[in-house]
Amino acid sequence: MKCHHCGSIDNKVIESRDVADSEAIRRRRECLKCNHRFTTYERLERPNLVVVKRDGTRELFSREKLLRGLQHASEKTSVTNMQLESFVAGIERELYGRGEPEISSTDIGELLMQGLSKINEVAYVRFASVYRKFRDISSFERELTKIRQTKSDENPLKKADKK
Predict the structure, then answer these.
(1) DSSP 101
(2) Among 29, 63, 143, 146, fewest CB within 10 Å belongs to which?
């Protein structure tokens, strides 16, 4: 692994640990030339998965693109990078577990929406606003109403209060 600070390929691994539900290994390294420390990730290389977009175009599945979108949606919230890494690992397992060479972007979006609503409501609404292409405030209100309804349905105390 090349040091991005000085370009040397001489480095040592300081620490290794499993991340993303044991789907990857995180390694802390130190350059032996300039002593700069950096992090690398090692993952199993999987067969290519093609994403079919809404307009019919196809592109290779990108874990990084998914993670970037989720990080953007969860900026300034309590969601950690480790939570997002774990969430994306679960999405990847689901997609590759289907055994299909192609997957629609709509299927991926729905999986993300389902999981993100359980992680953080603010991140969910931010992601939904882009994914569902909200055009006005009433679109936001409808989505917030769905969240409130789901929370109400899941909370047994509120059900008892209604009786």
Answers:
(1) S
(2) 146
